[in-house]
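Listing S7. Sequence submitted for prediction.
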Amino acid sequence: MRCFFVALSALALSSGVSALASPKEILYSGDARLTNLTDGSVSTEQVLLRKTLDDRASTLTEVACYRDPGKPAVISPVYMKVSGTSMQVSDQQDFSAGKLTGTGTLQGSSWDWNLLRWNMKYQTPAGLVEILDVNFVVGNRLIGRKQMFFNGQPFRLWEAEMEEVSAAEFQSQATAMGCPPF
């Protein structure tokens, strides 16, 4: 059920990059603040995000590792197919029917987007989770805000700020978090 918590955006290119050497990998690290909209409680989770952008295939892949305090780290992949300023979102690499589906719009220069708005639906055994998502890229920062609804009722607000990190820093943090290989 958590793949939508860490699918941050299809716009996370470093600032000023407009032409890709396809594919391009960007690594992010940060924290997310989760607000329970039912009882008002607040928690945090560590997040690492490996984003692969492939302009030739018109795809983006986000594989995140997140860890809530006191819990083991979890891997969560999300796949995106870009067509102009629109995109399709799935939890399946081949975009076959899965639990997560969605669509969105991109703003900014092609493959150097700075604003993304999208809607996702995630089917769970208990019901439908809908996510309204807005993401920004400012310099080397990725900022994401998700409003989540369970069976039509608001239940969680997820806000993350992440910064681009080196491969060595990313690997060091992944090891410290106990992330499975990704």
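Caption to Listing S7: primary sequence and predicted structure tokens for the chain studied. Confidence is low (pLDDT under 50) at residues 3-18. Residues 23 and 54 are 4 Å apart (CA to CA).
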